[in-house]
């Protein structure tokens, strides 16, 4: 057996373990009865330790050295070796005791966060969050030393391989200068139009589910390799060949679940479209979180908040819920689903104000990781940033710096990928529409094949073959910039040509 | 750390792995989309190999030797050491290559069986089944050599620790002499009464599910540590603290799902009632399959086909399905659920004819394991046995020797536990009714606490502390015999006092 074959066999076993963990995690969030939480935590902890042990197996280093000398490997195999070396380097950079300490600190801090958020009590979270932050700094330093990156960039690279704060600073400064004024204009333009008509519910869960599945099918989701279920926090998870999404239903407003289902379906299409021959290999994985978020936002924001989609969806909605009257016309629905409103909560934000929430978090986490600001000052700095970027100040920390789980759960360096994803979505969707003139007419007919076919070819089936920038350049002719995103917003919200 | 503590820590990890496997297996049978079957098989195979590696860890032998010398261990700890030595001895008796060969032969044979059963084509299964049988003989010989047991008894011991063919022969010969004549009498008595009134369906799945959950709650099932779902073949599975049961619904006949739910709830009550302090330890496991089956049959056959239960259930059924008329009276329902009929299929059989199905399989598998009969002669021997024990001959092998998955899937030595379970159920239920006079009056009120309380104390909470015979003697005053079971049948089907 060649060293390359030994490596791929080993990584197939790691994939089999990851798939087991993925399904158990899905089960924890959708099916598991409450009394099983303790036993489940034990099972997941055991499997994660075993997966980590497999990932840092010293034989991987030997196989890599030998395989990199092998003749006759093709482009994909070479790219797979590059990705294997990358993930192995990152995994082995972390000392085992830091992995364990971090895992324990995160468990404690997530628990403290749930209570602190409910009580709007930041000081109660502070010591737990400080411990997580300290260990994140250590982890970033350990990985950064190995990879030759700053501490923040090393953390960011877990979610966005090849990403850097220098690059993000430039993109975000551009947006931060543009958005506050733009949001004001968009809201002013909106106020000159009539307010949306309230829709008469309730909208039964079973009917919402039927509509969601019908739209998933139209988008090209493969139900032979996935499911739709319910969870408190919607997500896309599961395993290779078993990509499961979730939503939550509000009987007073079917739009929330529908747009949520479309968003998660975008993630799922990426996962289901990864290259079958490399499904369990590092080169077969999705490229990074900004590209992943771009796939969900292409569906939710670019495609399905378009007038074309609502022309297709309006009759389906009327048929599903027996709706009639002016509020159920495509034009009224489009106004409803493109409404701009300044609010405190990131996950409820529209696409115009969302980047402000992200830029705020990105600036704060960078300062905290660099120790340029005491953690105790986070609430004040948060509120000042909200005032600066959105012109509003949260009345308490539950609606402020306690709203997200990312920091308490060790996800430092994750936030910027949301807005990188929104910009990437605009740039990719624009390129798809130019390359395939039938993309928007197709959507108006409920035929997503022209769009998804283009995404399959240029994104999904590429796995991690190329770096993000190279993939984007091959697909759109240039690396990421904010230009197309800004043009998209201007066209949609100000009616600019 | 003491050797005993090291052992229990190790077995807790094995339990965490078993729990992961249990949930993934449950998911495969209830939730998994078809396209995930291949990836899931890889994940389960990996986890099973890892679980086996943990079970045969050579440190276990060292820890056992040291722990058995430790002072200060209580009765439960000593019993745990005895069980750990037992399972470790069995696991290590099998050479690793035999485990692997057996696993592959079983996969191939299960696949061949599905097709062969559909086609009623035994010759198509023959070579696959022969391979499984050969490897089962080898496994039985390896374990038998270590345990000092015959090949058949060694296989039986996987399901029924301490069981032996000599003991089963005596019990089954007794029953085989009694049952054919008894079934004839019962059917004759039944024919003198009016035939059951057909019930007017359909009975919607959602209503059946509500009724099932209401009865589960009455039986004492803990929904905080389990779930009810749907699968093709009903089962009780899942994990410690997460005991999940399944059923299947027939909209033409709600009784099938209801009795199935009650049966699986009996299994689940045993699992949920195991000693909390030893949940993940060998001594905390259920004692064996005959006792397990006794718990399901106490609920399904002893308690819930009684006139008392149907007096409680009849109004619930009428209320759930809006039923009315003579067919919905408790007496008519009781006649319906205690109907005796000779049929070809084991899983559809009533409690009078069921033992004949089991005795047939037991005699055949014993002869096949001992190589006293060529496997090619199985269909003819099967049909002859059906004629002798039940007076009917299957028209083809789909309704004959191809109906069950047990043999193709390597479950040799399992069948007798069904009928041992039926006899054990009768003996335990009789003892419970004598010890707790409120058992039957309670059931008539829908209050199962007197019955379940007695079972908790005498069976569930004992885990594997005692050998089966000792447990039964402590609970009922004597080891298992067929007497109470025969008396139960006579009382119910012939109205004997």
UniProtKB/TrEMBL annotation, chains A, B:
<feature type="binding site">
    <location>
        <position position="293"/>
    </location>
    <ligand>
        <name>Zn(2+)</name>
    </ligand>
</feature>
<protein>
    <recommendedName>
        <fullName>Metal-dependent carboxypeptidase</fullName>
        <ecNumber>3.4.17.19</ecNumber>
    </recommendedName>
</protein>
<keyword id="KW-0862">Zinc</keyword>
<dbReference type="GO" id="GO:0004181">
    <property type="term" value="F:metallocarboxypeptidase activity"/>
</dbReference>
<dbReference type="InterPro" id="IPR001333">
    <property type="entry name" value="Peptidase_M32_Taq"/>
</dbReference>
<comment type="function">
    <text>Broad specificity carboxypetidase that releases amino acids sequentially from the C-terminus, including neutral, aromatic, polar and basic residues.</text>
</comment>
<keyword id="KW-0121">Carboxypeptidase</keyword>
<keyword id="KW-0479">Metal-binding</keyword>
<feature type="binding site">
    <location>
        <position position="263"/>
    </location>
    <ligand>
        <name>Zn(2+)</name>
    </ligand>
</feature>
<keyword id="KW-0482">Metalloprotease</keyword>
<keyword id="KW-0378">Hydrolase</keyword>
<feature type="binding site">
    <location>
        <position position="267"/>
    </location>
    <ligand>
        <name>Zn(2+)</name>
    </ligand>
</feature>
<comment type="similarity">
    <text>Belongs to the peptidase M32 family.</text>
</comment>
<dbReference type="GO" id="GO:0006508">
    <property type="term" value="P:proteolysis"/>
</dbReference>
<dbReference type="GO" id="GO:0046872">
    <property type="term" value="F:metal ion binding"/>
</dbReference>
<keyword id="KW-0645">Protease</keyword>
<dbReference type="Pfam" id="PF02074">
    <property type="entry name" value="Peptidase_M32"/>
</dbReference>
<feature type="active site" description="Proton donor/acceptor">
    <location>
        <position position="264"/>
    </location>
</feature>
């Amino acid at each position: 057996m060649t060293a390359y074959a030994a490596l791929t066999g080993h990584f197939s076993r790691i994939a089999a373990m990851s798939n087991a963990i993925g399904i158990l995690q899905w089960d924890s969030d959708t099916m598991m009865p409450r009394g099983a939480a303790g036993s489940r935590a034990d099972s997941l902890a055991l499997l994660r330790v075993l997966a980590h042990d497999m990932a840092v197996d010293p034989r991987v280093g030997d196989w890599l050295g030998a395989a990199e000398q092998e003749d006759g490997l093709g482009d994909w195999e070479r790219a797979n070796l590059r990705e294997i070396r990358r993930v192995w380097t990152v995994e082995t950079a972390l000392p085992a005791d830091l992995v364990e300490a971090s895992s324990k600190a995160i468990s404690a801090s997530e628990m403290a966060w749930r209570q602190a958020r409910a009580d709007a009590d930041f000081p109660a979270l502070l010591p737990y969050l400080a411990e997580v932050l300290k260990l994140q700094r250590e982890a970033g330093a350990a990985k950064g030393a190995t990879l030759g990156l700053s501490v923040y960039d090393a953390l960011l690279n877990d979610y966005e391989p090849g990403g850097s704060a220098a690059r993000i600073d430039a993109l975000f400064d551009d947006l931060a200068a543009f958005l506050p004024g733009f949001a004001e204009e968009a809201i002013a333009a909106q106020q000159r139009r009539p307010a949306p008509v309230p829709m008469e519910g309730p909208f039964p869960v079973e009917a919402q589910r039927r509509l969601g599945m019908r739209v998933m099918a139209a988008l090209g989701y493969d139900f032979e390799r996935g499911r739709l279920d319910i969870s408190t926090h919607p997500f896309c998870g599961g395993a290779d060949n078993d990509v499961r999404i979730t939503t939550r239903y509000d009987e007073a407003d079917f739009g929330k679940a529908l747009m949520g289902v479309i968003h998660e379906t975008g993630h799922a299409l990426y996962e289901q479209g990864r290259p079958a021959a490399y499904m369990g290999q590092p080169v077969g994985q999705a490229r990074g979180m900004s590209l992943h978020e771009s796939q969900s936002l292409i569906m939710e924001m670019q495609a399905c908040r378009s007038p074309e989609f609502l022309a297709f969806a309006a009759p389906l909605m009327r048929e599903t819920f027996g709706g009639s009257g002016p509020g159920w016309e495509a034009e009224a629905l489009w106004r409803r689903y493109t409404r701009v409103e300044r609010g405190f909560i990131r996950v409820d934000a529209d696409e115009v104000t969302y980047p402000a929430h992200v830029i705020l978090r990105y600036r704060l986490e960078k300062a905290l990781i660099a120790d340029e600001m005491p953690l105790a000052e986070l609430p004040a700095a948060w509120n000042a940033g909200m005032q600066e970027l959105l012109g509003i100040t949260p009345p308490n920390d539950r609606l402020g710096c306690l709203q997200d789980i990312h920091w308490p759960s060790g996800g430092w360096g994750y936030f910027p990928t949301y807005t990188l994803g929104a910009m990437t979505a605009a740039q990719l969707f624009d390129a798809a529409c130019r390359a395939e003139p039938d993309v928007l007419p197709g959507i108006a007919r409920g035929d997503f094949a022209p769009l998804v076919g283009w995404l399959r070819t240029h994104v999904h089936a590429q796995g991690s073959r190329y770096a993000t920038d190279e993939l984007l350049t091959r697909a759109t002719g240039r690396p990421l910039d904010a230009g197309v995103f800004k043009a998209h917003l201007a066209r949609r919200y100000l009616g600019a040509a």
